[in-house]
Automatic annotation (TrEMBL):
Alphabetical UniProt keywords: GTP-binding, Hydrolase, Nucleotide-binding, Repeat, Ribosome biogenesis
Protein name: GTPase Der
Originating organism: Kiloniella laminariae
UniProt keyword annotation of Repeat present: yes
Residues that, per the record, bind GTP 2: 225-232, 272-276, 337-340
Superkingdom of origin organism: Bacteria
Amino acid sequence: MTFTVAIVGRPNVGKSTLFNRLIGKRLALVDDQPGVTRDRREGEAFLFGLRFKVIDTAGLEEAFDQSLEARMRQQTEQAVSEADLVLMLIDARVGVMPIDEHFAKFLRKGKTPIALMANKCEGKVGDIGLMEAYSLGLGEPIPFSAEHGLGSSDLYDIIKEHMEKAAEDKVVASPYIPPANLEAEEEEIPATQDDSEDHDFLDDDDFEEEDEEIVRGPLQLAIVGRPNVGKSTLVNKLLGEERLLTGPEAGITRDAISVEWEYQGRPIKLVDTAGLRRKSKIMDKVEKLSASDTIRALKFAQVVILVLDSDGILEKQDLTIARTVIDEGRALIIAVNKWDACPNKDEVMQLVRDRLQTSLPQVKGIPVVTISALKGQNLNKMLDAVFNIYEIWNRRIPTSGLNRWLSELLEIHPPPAPGGRRIKLKYITQARARPPTFAISCSLPEDLPASYSRFIENNLRDTFDLPGVPIRLHMKKGDNPYAGKKKRNN
């Protein structure tokens, strides 16, 4: 079991800044506005060779009703109960507030060890707050600056001490990594074998996509959609616990929260994202940060589930999100939520098919699944569709089969000859998968009509059974083998 550290404190004391520093990435949203963080976010932290799990939490609020603040407090309490060590932050520049005293009393009642950190101690401004921190009864406070990293060595000593103490009572997975190992080079991954031959017309510089990834690790599955369509409810139902905040309020989720999960023995990383609205309607700075975080999560996903509300099917914003997913080369599944409350099921399904056909003609066969996230209906069917389209997204087609297909296609439907110049399509190979990407050697690629390229793509999709995933087709003019060579003298 991994050693877990939870970061708690009242709003706007620097919890997310400390979380980002420990994990070495700017994952958690940070802003001067209080209460930016709502869900608890987990990450793998590294500190001078120590490796542990860290949990960023919402600001502690004294609320015990059914409000959003009360639900945020419950999430924080859950994080404290799961942690092996709690880091309680106060703002040393402001000093100890009554709410700090209240939650220090709450933490003292628990069994989880506590380390008190006086954040924002850079300079002399925080000296008074540092002295006041002793009054909380949580031991000697650690002067710290999450923004600048001051006091990191003291934090290292505290965490290492509690790790060693916890290791005496339970087995902790990899509690310490010697610093020398941090400089070791990563193990070299062997290149993927391909049955295609090397051809001069294939050049990696001609493709904007990244090199093909090795298929390994958990499936990256992002849940996206407009606000209040049931994304967090869907994730909670899949996990079987109230892991994410839900409620009638629109726009509860702000951070893109990833959760490790397993379905039928297959590992999945579920990513819940903030709802996306039109850019013209986004005025709040935090919402802009949330939208950027959602787009970032979408780019790193492999399969994306676009959740729709059965009351508002494929509106303009839904189609914008779908196009973004396709443009990024991700596999897309559409989940129509709240299906149990839909009165006109046949009309809604026909509307979905019509809009997909007219607005997303470049990707035919996008899977559409009707679900109820609240009642858990059809979730297995949705996940089966996820793994099916993931397999298509990863599919590689032998070069020999591709060229037989191209030869037969050209015999029946040869390319046009604009201006009387004949265009030759010589050779095709699959340059990459994820998504399926093909390169064709073409004598005059600049003259080939876009309509004929679409015809090739559609025929390729139908022949090799590639429904629902984006296909990238590149026309490349083959290099002249005699270019640059001097003529021989007779």
